[in-house]
Amino acid sequence: MPYCHNCANEIQGGMKFCPNCGQDQSVVVPQDQRIPTEDVPNVPPPPKQKRPTRSKRNAIVIVALILLLVVMARAFGGGGEGGDSSDSKTSSRQASGETFTNENYGDLVANPAGHRGAEVDITGKVFTDPEIGGNEAAVQIWADPKNSDWNTIVRTDPDSARVKRNDYVRVKGSVLGSFEGKNAFGANVDAVEISADSVESVEPAEAIDPAQKTVEVGQTRENQGFSGTLDRVEFGEDTTRVHLTLSNGTGSNASFFTHNAKIIQGARQVDPESPPQYDLPKLQSDLSPGVQTEGIIAFGPVDASTPFTVTLDWSSRAPGVRAQPLVFEVSP
Fold it and tell me: Tens of pLDDT along 198-254?
């Protein structure tokens, strides 16, 4: 093994410089100029950096993935502790029993997204033909049919969508949120979106002027063979609807005219009205012998807490018959 010309340190063959003192080995250093061996600094080479083992590398990767998942969960889950996710809002609303009807539906229209999951029980008018695709169907209704307002899209199944344009329906379900899009004419559409549990056809009066109170009467009055039965009275906000059945048992032709009917409540007389928004089943005016007719007479609003009478006039062509009015007493 050769030695350094300067410090006599043992070196490997072929090395140009001494790793101990740095002397160029191609230059011969005179004896009196060489460095004594004991004075040469022995600087250890820098330690080699150890590469992490495979198990340690795997542990680092796993920890990094866990941290990434935690960050993503907080980002999509409502901000972690103290956050208010939509699921928690829905749960709280369902727990509080929040329900929207035609009475408070305006609050839902103002903020559909803020009431996701709330229950809905409304009546309305269908104004487009249902759209059916596969196992899903959509019906568009006015939840305020009187003013053609409160556009609502009802998501349901094809069996429940067996209604047509201009039908009146009752919808029970829950709020999905807000729908924004364009109709067939390219106009923007903003509507409440509902997932329906049921869609049922109803009478127009029930949708436009729903009964706030219903009194079952079941009274029958008869005069000389002509009889009438007052089945029930519905008290709406705009109308008082009297359900009647008339029968002509006089043996001769008889006549009945709706416009002659009247309600007397105290010192006030309430006359029949023709609601402009909907048609009611009408009573026939000319009755042949043995004929029966059923229908509804709509009067103006009546106090549902105070007794009143309903008077029906009729006439007969039979000689010697002097028809007397049929009078019903109603005690709400």
Answer: 999 998 888 889 899 999 999 999 999 999 999 999 999 999 999 999 999 998 999
pTM summary value: 0.61
Q: What is the model's pLDDT at position 70?
A: 46
Count of alpha carbons within 13 Å of 99, Cβ hemisphere only?
8
- Whether residue 8 sits in one domain with residue 39: yes
Give the domain CATH number at 268: 2.60.40.4170
Domains in the chain, number: 3
Task: Kindly tell me if the per-residue pLDDT of 73 is higher than 60.
Answer: no
Opening angle at CA 119, ends 117 and 121, nearest 5: 150
Partners of 173 in beta bridges: 120, 196
Name the average pLDDT for the chain. 81
DSSP structural state of residue 277: T
- Least Cα distance to 22 among 32, 35, 33 occurs for 35
**What's the CA gap between 127 and 151, in Å, rounded?**
10
Task: State the Cα–Cα distance between residues 224 and 251, nearest whole angstrom.
Answer: 10
**Residues sharing a CB contact under 8 Å with residue 304, sequence separation 6 or more, in sequence order:** 212, 213, 215, 235, 332
DSSP string, 124-153: EEE-S--EEETTEEEEEEEEETTTTEEEEE
The pLDDT tens digits of the residues spanning 99-127 come to 999 989 999 999 999 999 999 999 999 99
* DSSP label at residue 74: H
> Cα(94)–Cα(119) distance, rounded to whole angstroms?
8
Containing structural domain, residue 18: 1-46
For residue 142, the domain's CATH number is 2.40.50.140
CA dihedral 185, 186, 187, 191 (to 10 degrees): 100
Question: Which tokens hold the place of 213?
Answer: 């109170």
CA distances from 325 to 148, 229, 233, 299 (A): 40, 13, 19, 18
Amino acid code (one letter) for 290: G
